């Protein structure tokens, strides 16, 4: 497959539906306002809201999925507006590496299985990559760790000894709260 054909294939949006909900990889549907509102809320404890131009850069450099609720008009029962109620992204080179981050579902929609469904949807991305070396994430919550282990088949990476790796190392940046 040529590079142009690969780029076209990567840019094709994927959609999943479940009742009045849908997940879509089309970045043009993502609401910077909704994402930043979540980033500034307590339930997204690991980050803070970003300037919109910075958030746009983050989205442009990632593979993202938005989770949406199609809201039916009370008077007609027909789908009217949609609301973004969740988000997840991979920081990735789209071939060998994917780092999962910024996954959330707004609190009033939690407990209905939508977060697990969002994980299942995004898991199709690394599963389709024959040269993927690592899909990773960092979490401090046991519940989150267990969900990713169960749904993605991930495991906790143990650090090696001084003479035998692997070692997972990192450095906090200025934006780490």
Give structural notes.
With 177 residues, this protein is α+β, with helices and mostly antiparallel strands. It has a single domain, classed as Gcn5-related N-acetyltransferase (GNAT) (Aminopeptidase). Helix content is 29%, strand content 25%. A six-stranded mixed beta sheet has the order 1-2-3-4-5-6, sandwiched between helices. Helix 4 crosses helix 5. The radius of gyration is 18 Å and the shape is globular.
Could you outline the blueprint of secondary structure elements for this entry?
Layout: H1 3-11, E1 15-18, E2 21-24, H2 32-39, H3 52-60, E3 62-72, E4 79-92, E5 97-105, H4 114-127, E6 134-136, H5 142-152
Parallel strand pairs: 5-6
Antiparallel strand pairs: 1-2, 2-3, 3-4, 4-5
Helix pairs in contact: 4-5
């Amino acid at each position: 497959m040529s590079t142009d054909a690969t780029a076209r294939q990567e840019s094709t949006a994927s959609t999943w539906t479940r009742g009045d909900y849908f997940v879509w990889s089309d970045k043009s549907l993502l609401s910077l306002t909704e994402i930043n509102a979540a980033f500034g809320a307590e339930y997204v404890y690991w980050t803070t809201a970003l300037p919109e131009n910075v958030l746009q850069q983050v989205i442009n450099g990632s593979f993202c999925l938005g989770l949406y609720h199609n809201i039916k008009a009370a008077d007609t029962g027909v789908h009217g507006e949609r609301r973004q109620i969740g988000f997840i992204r991979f920081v990735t080179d789209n071939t060998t590496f994917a780092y999962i981050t910024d996954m959330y579902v707004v609190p009033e929609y939690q407990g209905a299985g939508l977060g697990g469904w969002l994980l299942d949807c995004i898991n199709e991305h690394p599963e389709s990559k024959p040269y993927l070396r690592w899909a990773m994430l960092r979490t401090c919550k046991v519940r989150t760790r267990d969900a990713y282990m169960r749904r993605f088949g991930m495991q906790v990476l143990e650090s090696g000894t001084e003479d035998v790796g692997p070692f997972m190392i990192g450095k906090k940046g200025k934006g780490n709260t």
